[in-house]
Amino acid sequence: MLNSIRSKLFTRQNTAESISSKIHSSISSNIKNVSNSIFYMNLNEKKVPHLDLSKRNLTSLSEEYSQTHINEITRVSKILKETRALFKGSPFKCGNKIRFNRTIEQHKECIDRLSMIRKSDNLSDHLIQSIKSKTGNCGELAYIAYALLHNSGFDADYIIFDDLKNKRFDHAICQVEILGEKYYVDPWFNIFCKKTDYSDVILEKANIWRENGKHISARLVWDEIEKYLKYNDSQFLSSFEIKNEDLQNLTKIIEGKVISSDLPITSVQFIEKIRSIQ
């Protein structure tokens, strides 16, 4: 689902491994690549409670962090919430999440809206239209979080992951550093956690989604999706649903700064525009 936005917004630079030209023919014309090291998800670490910092209260945070650290964590959590609030209440929010509580018509309308807003070669206009239509996948949400983080003084990076093994899934998030420690901000998954905890957290979130009738799709097969919605049987999604093994294959291929030739998305003017949208 990120193919069209990335083909317009990025030109891939020095990726660590060759990637399908169809998926990543031009990944980062808007990103200055500062790290192309491979990051393989480590799923062998033992899970601990409350890895997602945005879900923790101040009392639990104080057991682990200093007050200065807590203040910064709180600021990032608020930015994650603000990013998601810009799309709140929309049945057309994400095109590659198949929801049992959304009609087939709403799923199709979401894709139509995404196709329309992604026709723009202007990054800031693209994102403004995304917010106005309350439609966006991980790429749009990560860009907006990136803009808000920079506006709040965080030197965020934009990160792209890809499934280099099977080419079934790619994903975009942001990275910030707090007191020398790196954290991932993922508005699409609604996650804010330490970089080292990210793999555990997204697997847990994906499992919760499945239990609640929400599935990540590698491609959209309308006949099968319609059967799933009719019978509430996920077996109809089995051939194209993103599963845990697909998430395990995610590899970081780009990490860097967003570069745009139009209105910079980190500018005060852009932030004022998106915050004024009703």
From TrEMBL:
Protein name: Transglutaminase-like domain-containing protein
InterPro entries in UniProt: Papain-like_cys_pep_sf, Transglutaminase-like_domain
One Pfam entry name: DUF553
Domain Transglutaminase-like: residue ranges: 126-187
Species: Providencia stuartii
The organism's place on the tree of life at top rank: Bacteria
